[in-house]
Specification:
By secondary structure, the chain is an alpha/beta fold. It folds into two domains: 119 residues, 3-Layer(aba) Sandwich (Rossmann fold); 187 residues, Rossmann fold (3-Layer(aba) Sandwich). Helices cover 35% and strands 16% of the residues. It has 13 helices and 14 strands. Strands 10-9-8-11-12-13-14 form a seven-stranded parallel beta sheet, with helices on both faces. Helix 3 packs parallel to helix 4 and helix 5 packs across helix 8. The C terminus is likely disordered.
Length: 339
């Protein structure tokens, strides 16, 4: 058997941060005995070790760089949501490299954040905070626009690990829950969504037409353009809210702005924007129907523990020829040829 090398590239060169040795224990426990493990702490060290790397966790280099400098690469475990794009991963997927995301490690906190944003819109929390700062007690002013989440229809766009966790949460709260993108579900996740009305992504228009709240979540299947564009917002109820806990470019920001301005969508809570940080002069800052949070949906003090546990499980699976968790799916035109 050819020599196998696992390279762990979990560092931030500018701040000096790197994943501690104790946190790496699950990876060392899952690695086969014949697999060498190299931990790198800089881009220079990563480039030096790539030629012999067969398995990579972390990724702090462009996919094109990996394809050019890592000819033996077989599998990549992403730890960053920002790397999950067709532009970034296309060269790797086209070369037949298997890629897994860390969505499952972000799913619990993303579900909490989606629920928070949904309730904030329904219960007019942003306006209540503004009135608090003005020392104004205005029950009647807010009460007319308060909505119930319970028994409303919630549509979840993309059933990756994040979307599945959000859909299960909303169904448990008594919402009529719809979800599209069931093609991405594995059997275990599908079994946990018995109360969710699931369909393929092509059923998106029906979901948008029925939903009181639409929640955009990150897909596992990469797409060349936004899922929610001008046509999507035309399909939504004018009374509906949009909650975005996905990643940049899943939602067409310009189309959303126009839909909000023309009152084709009642309001939006956005944790993902096309350009972060959002420019100070961007009109979304001052729109009264918009609530913004600065990419907090994936933040958790337990993230690295969950992410390394997921990476270790996928390392065990990939070296034993078992199905991987959260494997990124390429569009048909990008997938490597078979046969």
């Amino acid at each position: 058997m050819a020599a196998r090398r696992l390279t762990v590239a979990a560092f931030h060169e500018e701040t000096g941060w790197r994943l501690g040795e104790e946190a790496l224990a699950p990876l060392r426990a899952s690695a086969p005995e014949d697999m060498a493990i190299v931990v790198v702490r800089s881009h220079r060290e990563l480039l030096e070790t790539l030629p012999e790397t067969t398995h990579l966790v972390g990724v702090s280099a462009a996919a094109q760089t990996l394809r050019e400098h890592a000819p033996k690469l077989q599998w990549v475990q992403l730890l960053s949501a920002s790397a999950e794009s067709l532009t970034t991963l296309g060269p790797l997927l086209a070369a037949g490299v298997r890629v897994t995301s860390s969505q499952r490690a972000r799913a619990p906190q993303a579900a909490e954040h989606a629920l928070l944003l949904t309730l904030a819109l329904c219960r007019r929390l942003s306006e209540a905070v503004d009135l608090q700062r003005a020392h104004t007690w205005a029950t009647s002013r807010l009460a007319a626009d308060v909505r119930d989440l319970f028994s409303s229809c919630v549509g979840v766009v993309h059933l990756g690990p994040v979307g599945a966790t959000i859909a299960r949460t909303m169904a448990t709260l008594g919402c009529e829950t719809l979800a599209v993108g069931a093609e991405s579900l594995n059997e275990e996740d599908a079994a946990n969504l018995a109360k969710v009305e699931k369909g393929p992504l092509r059923a998106l228009d029906e979901l948008l037409a029925r939903s009181d709240v639409v929640i955009a979540t990150p897909p596992l299947a990469l797409r060349p353009g936004p899922t929610l564009d001008r046509a999507a917002f035309e399909s939504m109820k004018a009374s509906a809210f949009l909650v975005d806990v996905s990643r940049p470019h899943v939602v067409d920001e310009s189309a959303l702005f126009q839909a909000l301005r023309k009152e084709k969508v009642a309001g939006a809570a956005l944790d993902a924007v096309e350009r972060a940080p959002l420019p100070a002069d961007h009109p979304l800052w001052t729109m009264p129907t918009v609530l913004l949070t600065p990419s907090l949906a994936g933040v958790s003090p337990s993230f690295w523990q969950r992410a390394v546990t997921l990476a270790a499980e996928n390392l065990r699976r990939v070296t034993q020829g078992q199905p991987l968790l959260d494997e990124v799916q390429a569009p048909a035109a990008t997938a490597a040829p078979t046969g």
